[in-house]
Write a structure and sequence with these properties.
heterodimer; A: about 800 residues; Aldehyde Oxidoreductase, domain 4; about 30% helix; B: about 160 residues; DNA polymerase, domain 1; five-stranded mixed sheet; 5 helices; 5 strands
Chain lengths: ~800, ~160
């Protein structure tokens, strides 16, 4: 496998767009603007921020997995000399339960979580009280003095066992979701073969390196409640938290600062976020809350735990006539911010890259006595890709076809794009915008050196090594619209400020936006400062999630920069140079005449200075070298890719060693290939965690067992194989001018599928792997069972 | 336990006279009492390595020590890596190789790598991977971190601060 640099990427003008398709920085591997403060220890993670006279909040958490609260004793805590306050559910009875985002899915309201438990607790770690002190150590001392007396109830710990009672008269089956199109009954009836798989993904999650935190205070000069430390969707969360605590949105602002990893989980509205803001309001003092790692593993949202039973109806040639799929989704104890997005997406994306004439799927969304579940990078798709690809591997085996051939016969043909499916995902009609999956497969096989790889594997197996190769094909989604805005301003020194509603969670959004703005405007990217994650400087913003920021915020940034460029040129043409606007351009931050190369230009800072408020600039339109831009798109983008793993299994220990990993990905347009590769390799690491190591275990009483990083095992440098990335731009999105599709989740989506297939291949047992993660214990037990059965 | 003690911490060549409870961890004292928040705290149980600092040249987890135990030791934190406005070779290499994303683990990796290269300037690739696997990163997949540290080792700049 060989690494591919930007030389394999061909940039050029291929969209209607504008008259300025400059690509000086777009497409380049420029270093990040984010790095200087982060490598010198000047990060502004919320734990690093303090306000004078601040209180420290500490959460008291349930030790019961399911219980009726008989009483909570706060007397000892209140008697502590350092105690500044204790709240239980009764003290916040006026605060409604945490809302979820707008959705057409009905029936989830009764399953929402209160910010402090009222009469019931439903998972270990559920907040039952908060205490306040002047010092974080003292707050911890006081929290230890709060005790709860509960009447323990039986626990429910799996979603595929019969539902129980969530509350009197209310089932733990919160929802049954359905999607279907085509005639699946006929497909099943007419099928030459019906292939079935029954597979599970274990409970794991994002686990960012930074624990959650929040710091809130009221600035009385503006009557604004400020909250620091909120990532992912600052505007939406500001609106939601303001509503919960009874403030108007305009009197509350969120500031994200630096965020130590997002991955989907740092963007739930958590009870603690609301409590911190509420406390700042009630105490009228700054309030700081930072959790510890144990709390993070107990209370930050979990994800992924699903069982899929998938039946594929195939014709004689191994072509799909239809897919009939069921899933059981373990939602944990409550439904919070993301509603039923994860199972909805899993169901909507399960048929992936394949032409499937008929599809029927049912999703059972069930509550259990575990930490609430929600989104984690590639939500729903990591699980559904694994399930669908397990089906394709099983079909290959039953038809006697190679695992590649069965897929080739079913891939959506290039000519069929845009490819509509008669169903919705997240209330959006599905239309795959562009693609050439077979083309990517061909390139992948060449890049990997497929025939040689298979020959090497065969030779090693002949010597007794348990080595194998597996692939996972996936259809991603990104760029979810519909609209995002940005504002670009040039100051009198020629420095450019881009104000966006995006969120920076480590992915490099400042650099990418600067590259886009620099090319659109005609300046050096290092002269562009990108503001993000603040609700006080831009009225609207979509944040960063679902691989959308580059597409949506990038689109808006480009529009705004083009508007500024037009304004600069029109003003210069009228007042500063005697030339028609068509003869002007901005190059390296100077307004120049196209017809007189080499002649000194006018620095854009001077144009900005000339645009200061004056009768002339008011007459011109509006003062200031500044403009907004709005980008709208009808549909999502659909990047796609192929993951290939080479693994070796040690039959004595059950250990799976990943020797090589290859990711082929069509991104449409890579703004910064270095950052895209960074996203992909990092995603692979997380995917390998979920495929091989990471799982939240519970004992039979619902007691969590994975509460330290010594129990919850994330990959280290030792477990990471070399990862090669083949980045292609063969199917740019028609939905935006640069053809961008999004990069955030490409590294993780297919990992579970590829690893399961590779292990099957290594141990020589088709469809052996039915459960992720494939821990050494599980694999060793599987090999033992198989050996016993074949005796 | 809660009776404060007066101690002096020598951090990056500067003496910090602070009053701390004996139970206060070194990382908390560095952050809250010395104002050096570049050292991040990721797990407080010695697994993730985000809080790694150098004590008498040796990488240690500052969450697993009490501040009072660090008296009389020469401590170095990420704030002391760059000198005279010039980035340390490792800081530059991390930037050049895109060895950080969210940056939360970066201080710990930088100090671990700095201490390691100062003690073993010729460390081989496999041993280097072994050492760096003692810290966790959730963003990068480690490939670029390894590349950055190898680059500095190869350039032989680590000791020439």
């Amino acid at each position: 496998m060989s690494a591919h640099g930007p030389s394999s990427l061909k940039h050029g003008e291929r969209h209607n767009g504008d008259a300025n398709p400059r690509r000086k920085f777009v497409g380049q591997r420029v270093t990040r603007l984010e790095d200087p403060p982060l490598v010198t220890g000047r990060g502004t993670y919320v734990g690093n921020l303090n306000f004078p006279h601040q209180l420290h909040m500490r959460v008291v958490r349930s030790t019961y997995a399911n219980a009726i609260i008989r009483s909570i004793d706060t007397s000892a805590a209140l008697a502590h000399p350092g105690c500044r306050g204790v709240w239980t559910g009764a003290d916040v009875a006026d605060i409604p339960p945490i809302t979820f985002r707008p959705t057409s899915i009905q029936g989830l309201e009764p399953y929402r979580q209160f910010i402090l438990a009222r009469d019931r607790v439903r998972y270990v770690g559920e907040p039952i009280a908060v205490v306040f002190a002047d010092d974080p150590y003292v707050a911890e001392d006081i929290a230890d003095l709060v005790t709860m007396d509960g009447e323990a109830l039986p626990v429910i710990l799996s979603a595929d066992t019969p539902p129980g009672e969530f509350a009197p008269g209310l089932s733990t089956e919160a929802l049954v979701l359905r999607k279907n199109f085509g005639d699946i009954e006929s497909a099943l009836k007419n099928a030459f073969k019906v292939v079935e798989v029954d597979v599970q993904v274990g409970r794991h999650s994002g686990v960012p390196m930074e624990n959650r935190g929040a710091l809130a205070r009221i600035d009385h000069s503006r009557d604004v409640l400020e909250c620091y430390g909120q990532g992912k969707r600052p505007h939406a969360h500001r609106d939601a938290v303001a509503t919960l605590i009874g403030r108007s949105p305009a009197s509350m602002h969120f500031y994200e600062g630096h965020i130590g990893g997002g991955f989907g989980v740092r963007g739930e509205i958590y009870p603690e976020d609301v409590l911190t803001c509420l406390a700042a309001q009630r105490f009228d003092r700054p309030v700081k809350w930072v959790e510890d790692r144990r709390e993070n593993l107990l209370a930050c949202n979990h994800s992924r735990e699903q069982r899929h039973v998938v039946r594929g109806a195939f014709d004689e040639q191994g072509r799909l006539l239809g897919i009939d799929a069921k899933l059981w989704h373990d939602q944990g104890a409550y439904v919070r911010t993301h509603g039923a997005r994860v199972p909805d997406m899993a169901m909507g994306t399960l048929i992936g890259a394949y032409h499937v004439p008929s599809y029927r799927t049912v999703g059972y969304v069930r509550m259990t006595n575990k930490t609430p579940a929600a989104t984690y990078r590639s939500p729903g798709r990591f699980e559904s890709t694994y399930a669908c690809e397990r089906l394709m591997d099983a079909a290959a085996e039953q038809f006697g076809l190679s695992r590649i051939e069965i897929r080739r016969r079913n891939l959506i043909p290039k000519e069929s794009y845009p490819y509509a499916r008669a169903m919705e995902i997240l209330d959006h009609a599905v239309e795959l915008d562009s693609g050439d999956f077979a083309g990517l497969l061909d390139k992948t096989l060449v890049d990997i050196g497929w025939e040689k790889l298979l020959a090497d594997v065969a030779a090693r197996r002949a010597k007794g090594e348990l080595v194998g190769v597996g692939m996972g094909f996936f259809m991603e989604k990104g760029g979810l619209g519909p609209v995002d805005g940005a504002k670009v301003t040039v100051d009198t020194r020629g420095k450019v400020q881009v104000i966006t509603g995006a969120s920076s969670i480590g992915q490099g959004v400042e650099t990418v936006m600067a590259q886009i703005a620099a090319d659109a405007l005609g300046v050096e990217y290092r002269d562009v400062k990108v503001i993000h994650g603040r609700t006080d400087v831009l009225e609207y913003g979509i944040g960063s999630h679902a691989s959308r920021a580059t597409v949506m915020t990038g689109g808006a940034t480009r529009m705004a920069a083009l508007n500024v460029r037009r304004k600069a040129l029109e003003f210069a043409s009228r007042h500063l140079v005697e030339a028609p606007v068509e003869m002007l351009d901005i190059v390296d931050g100077q307004v120049v005449r196209i017809d007189r190369p080499g002649e000194p230009g006018i620095p854009i800072g001077k144009v900005a200075a000339a645009l200061a408020p004056s009768p002339a600039t008011v007459e011109f339109g509006n003062p200031g070298l500044t403009a907004e831009g709005w980008f709208e798109t009808a549909g999502m983008t659909h990047p796609y890719g192929i993951h290939t793993a080479l693994v070796k299994v040690d039959p004595d220990t059950g250990e799976t060693k990943v020797e090589r990993f290859h990711v082929a990905y069509d991104i449409g347009c890579a703004i910064n290939p270095m950052l895209v590769e960074g996203q992909i390799v990092g995603g692979v690491a997380q995917g390998l965690g979920g495929a091989l190591f990471e799982e939240f275990f519970y004992d039979e009483r619902g007691e969590p067992l994975s509460v330290t990083l010594a129990d919850y095992l994330m990959p280290t440098a030792s477990e990471m194989p070399p990862v090669d990335v083949l980045l292609t731009e063969d199917a740019p999105s028609p939905n935006n001018a640069l053809g961008m599709k999004g990069a955030g989740e490409a590294g993780i989506t297919g990992v579970g599928a590829a690893i399961a297939a590779a292990i099957d291949d290594a141990i020589g047992i088709p469809n052996a792997i039915t459960r992720l993660p494939v821990t050494p214990q599980r694999l060793k037990a599987l090999l033992k069972r198989h050996a016993a059965a074949s005796k | 336990m809660t009776q404060k003690m007066a101690i002096t911490l020598d951090v990056n060549g500067t003496g910090h006279e602070i009053r701390v409870e004996p139970r206060k961890t070194l990382c908390d004292a560095l952050r809250a009492d010395c104002g050096l928040t570049g050292t991040n705290v990721g797990c407080e149980h010695g697994v993730c390595g985000a809080c790694t600092v150098l004590m008498d040249g040796v990488p240690v987890r500052s969450c697993l020590m009490f501040a009072v135990q660090a008296q009389g030791k020469a401590l170095r934190t990420v704030e002391g890596l760059s000198t005279g406005g010039k980035l340390h070779a490792l800081q530059q290499a991390f930037t050049d190789n895109h060895a950080l994303q969210c940056g939360f683990c970066t201080s710990g990796f930088l100090m671990l790598a700095a201490g390691t290269l100062e003690q073993q300037p010729d460390i081989d690739d496999e041993s280097l991977r072994e050492v760096l696997s003692s810290n966790l990163c959730r963003c990068t997949g480690y490939q670029n971190i390894l590349r950055a540290v190898r680059q500095v080792r190869d350039a032989g700049k680590a000791g020439a601060r």
